[in-house]
Amino acid sequence: MLNHYETVFIATPVLSDVQIKEAVKKYRDFITDNGGEIVHEEDWGLKKLAYPIQKKTTGFYYLIEFMAAPELIAKLELQYRRDERIIRFLTFALDKHAAAYAQKRRANKSKAKEA
User: With contact defined as beta carbons under 8 Å apart, do 6 and 72 qualify?
Assistant: First the structure.
């Protein structure tokens, strides 16, 4: 049984574009290599942090929405903790209402892009 999850991670702002892409690829591949299925992803870019983390005031935000078995989450979060490029992360399960909301939000975004 696959559950619906969203994970957001914040990468350190000192990384180059290439290093950011490598980090994103690492986690996308990690999810798919472990039986997960990516539903959607968003690059939120460089944003100001609410408070300094490791003396940094900005970070690169990235969201991945995916379907996976519950066992994958602990492995994914262990990878985040071991990666010095990642300064914060949050993974949470979406219930059917949150998943429907995420789908509606994506649809509205694509309509806005077309207009």
Answer: no
